[in-house]
DNA sequence: AGCAAAATTTAAAACGTTTGCAATTTCGAA
DNA sequence: TTCGAAATTGCAAACGTTTTAAATTTTGCT
């Protein structure tokens, strides 16, 4: 078994070369004789030498890490978003030899403070931020700081440009409306959340725009709002829609979790999906395939998006492009069995 | 807006103190006058000073990171394991100010090589390894290297002790058998995988032990095996169990994904769960709650386990306990609607 | 053989922090 | 006052690497 070589100094000594030469040889500099480069590479491989990250980072100013702040959420992690996102980032990063660092923000701790810490400590060369809020201090901070970042999601309007990748929720919601309209639906319901996330507005606006495009005054839209994290309130909101004197024939939910609640409540109150009610979600979470009769939804392909975000960020770090990079991904309709033609006769909700 | 203070040197200069004093003051050393400590803390806070991680790591030998190697899996990430695991680790780490680094192993790249790189580069003070294989070179490497680690899962037998946390799959499978036996089932099916993971043996052995404990010769167990990653083969294996001349009245699946396949295939071939067939899974993935009629399974509470793993690892790093830490978590039965009394009359499979 | 240019190697500084040891200041008692 | 001890602060080395600038060796020509 080979002697444990931990440092460049030891490796250099064992080769009878200077630290400088070994360092350069390993980095593949042309100025080092080919024969020497090979000899060094061979010795390093055999000794299992790996350069110390801290030392390299300290002198080069590059850590080779990309940061992601992980907000601790409630006890029920109901989707695979994080897993897919992280996997996608990993895939994107590994191609360039970069790694991911995940800094956790404790529940009471502002996410901004953790982000700041990651940036100021030099742990990462760039960061990814997700779940963009209407007024997002992270964006302002990173922008002021001039620190490389890519946002997953967008601001509604901003007086500055930045790098982002977003799924085109507006387009998806327009598509959902058009499809349902063509199936004869005229009375729509929208289940949405009260949290100030921008994706909510983007999707709602896309729906409103699609409605406006039709110019059909008989189209009606009822909106029910609840907190994202309060399951009880969500169920209540859904039932406000379902139990009114006149009930929508089609409900579009801001995301699958809400759509699944709609389907559960519909079933509980004796409605059959899609005969009595069409439901469309967004995200294509795993459960949407299993929840009967199968939820029609949009696939945002989180993993693929994350991979592209990683690519974008590495490009930004390496090349500092003058123009910001932006990318709008059109989500794909996943047509399952939760939507269908509008019912002919308006049935009242069963008592 | 305060001048940007990036280094200790600048902060010290602005305070008229030496670097040493400021460093010690920030570290809270008693030998520095309280008044000075307060003055320094105030200035640091106001300037937003954060110590450079690379420099600190280099000199102290501690990075404050815990590593996890992320194997890239197939295109379909069907569960929320990674997300929950990472969230749990984050929760456990944040309490001690540690962060997580995720190193991705490209598909063709051996996970061991990536692990080695993480360890040898000094990026992490300890690592977590998951999905323990029957013969696991990672364990041997870390052990030889004397590097702090915690395994999520166990070897079947080993000639050395190490730190691990595992869910007691053997107990769960015994419990599942006992419950089904008491419901009158005598003919069992087991759907398992061909991959050499230890958890497979632990669970199967638990089942075998429970069967042996009953000492009832009328108990019969059919086993179907398929690759974890080949959906077609999995479906075939399930159907071998379902379509035989005499079919089990209860099927236990190694994990939920297989159990869901059983339920799908049962429904497809006209069997009603749980009237004709009881099905029990393991993991309690999200979809198991939605897949009709609701899968009875065991909840391994990945998130909680991960949090404990983080705690264990930080303890190991800080205190280097002489005895290895081990922890066996008993998974909780999640009783849904996929199991019931054994059918009275043996129905043949419908043609 | 001798010399300039090219090729190859090296010494030393720098990155920003922690820390052993020494220097300085403060303070109470003689 | 003055002295010694205690309290407080500072110098300088060290961590392991990259990189600038300079030194050394080799090569090609005459």
Automatic annotation (TrEMBL), chains A, B:
Molecular function as annotated in GO: DNA-binding transcription factor activity; transcription cis-regulatory region binding
The entry's keywords: DNA-binding, Transcription, Transcription regulation
Leader peptide range in chain numbering: none
Matches recorded under InterPro entries: HTH_LacI (IPR000843), LacI/GalR-like_sensor (IPR046335), Lambda_DNA-bd_dom_sf (IPR010982), Peripla_BP_I (IPR028082)
Annotated ranges, domain HTH lacI-type: 6-60
Keyword flag DNA-binding: yes
Record carries keyword Glycoprotein: no
Protein name, entry field: LacI family transcriptional regulator
Organism whose genome encodes this protein: Mesorhizobium hawassense
């Amino acid at each position: 078994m080979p002697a444990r070589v931990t440092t460049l100094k030891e490796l250099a000594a064992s080769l009878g070369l200077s630290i400088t030469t070994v360092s350069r040889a390993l980095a593949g500099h042309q100025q080092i004789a080919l024969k020497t480069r090979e000899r060094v590479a061979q010795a390093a491989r055999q000794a299992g030498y790996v350069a110390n990250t801290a030392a390299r980072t300290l002198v080069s100013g590059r850590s080779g890490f990309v940061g992601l702040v992980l907000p601790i959420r409630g006890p029920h992690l109901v989707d695979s978003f994080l897993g897919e996102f992280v996997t996608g980032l990993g895939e994107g990063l590994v191609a360039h030899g970069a790694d991911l660092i995940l800094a956790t923000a404790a529940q009471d701790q502002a996410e901004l403070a953790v982000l700041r810490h990651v940036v100021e400590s030099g742990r990462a060369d760039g960061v990814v931020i997700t779940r963009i809020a209407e007024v997002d201090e992270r964006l302002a901070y990173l922008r002021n700081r001039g620190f490389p970042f890519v946002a997953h999601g967008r601001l509604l309007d901003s007086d500055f440009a930045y790098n982002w990748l977003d799924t085109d929720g507006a387009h998806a919601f327009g598509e959902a409306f058009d499809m349902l309209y063509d199936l004869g639906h005229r009375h729509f319901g929208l289940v949405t959340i009260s949290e100030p996330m921008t994706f909510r507005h983007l999707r709602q606006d896309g729906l409103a725009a699609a409605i406006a495009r039709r110019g059909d005054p008989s189209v009606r839209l009822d909106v029910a709002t609840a907190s994202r994290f309060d399951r009880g309130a969500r169920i209540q909101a859904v039932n406000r829609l379902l139990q009114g004197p006149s009930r929508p024939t089609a409900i579009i939910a801001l995301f699958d979790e809400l759509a699944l609640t709609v389907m559960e409540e519909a079933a509980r109150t004796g409605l059959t999906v899609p005969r009595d009610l069409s439901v469309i979600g967004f995200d294509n979470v795993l459960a949407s395939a299993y929840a009967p009769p199968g939820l029609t939804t949009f696939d945002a392909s989180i993993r693929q998006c994350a991979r592209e975000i990683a690519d974008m960020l590495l490009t930004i770090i390496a090349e500092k492009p003058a123009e910001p990079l932006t990318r709008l991904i059109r989500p794909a309709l996943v047509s399952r069995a939760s939507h269908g033609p509008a019912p002919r006769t308006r049935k009242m909700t069963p008592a």
